[in-house]
Amino acid sequence: MKVGSHTRWKSRYHYVWGTKYRHNILTIPVSKYLKKLVMEICYCYEYTFDALGTDGDHVHLLLGATPSQRPDQIVRTIKSITARKLFKKHPSLKKILWGGSLWAVGYYWATVGEGQSNEVMREYVSNQGSKEEKTRIKQLRLL
């Protein structure tokens, strides 16, 4: 729980967004750098970083923010800063993606409650791209 001068809050958001044209560009080096960037952005903008996971062509992010920080502003800030810095660090991405955009236009966001659901979401987001998560998803599809 965070405390302000007159308020207390605990808000968590789950974001998902994809790469432009769903290109599978989020390799291990790119994903590691992306996580580092997102953690730096969270520190600078006073977001609370919880977890980040990638699966080749999309990103899952779990973070917290103050009540004055709108969810759409948060994701817009993160997507724009990471795109600019990823293109600078990995210029080969520009050869794959044309038009100067790294991320697709849209995104998904939802609030995450306290307690077990927060822990479940943290594990889910952190395990994106892992063999365990892919196996779990295949098993769910069988049902």
CATH class membership: Alpha Beta
Query: Under the CATH scheme, which architecture would be assigned?
Result: 2-Layer Sandwich
Radius of gyration: 16 Å
**So, the CATH homologous superfamily?**
Transposase IS200-like
Task: Summarize the structure in words.
- The protein is of the alpha+beta class.
- The chain has one domain: Transposase IS200-like (Alpha-Beta Plaits, 2-Layer Sandwich).
- It has 5 helices and 6 strands, in the order βββαββααβαα.
- The strands form 2 sheets. It has a 4-stranded antiparallel sheet with strand order 4-5-3-6, sandwiched between helices.
- β4 (about 50-55) and β5 (about 60-65) form a beta hairpin.
- It is globular, with a radius of gyration of 16 Å.
Give keywords.
143 residues, two-stranded antiparallel ribbon, 45% helix, 5 helices, alpha+beta, Alpha-Beta Plaits
Helices and strands in order, then pairings?
Blueprint: E1 2-3, E2 8-9, E3 12-18, H1 28-45, E4 48-54, E5 58-64, H2 71-89, H3 92-96, E6 108-112, H4 116-126, H5 131-142
Antiparallel strand pairs: 1-2, 3-5, 3-6, 4-5
Helix pairs in contact: 1-2
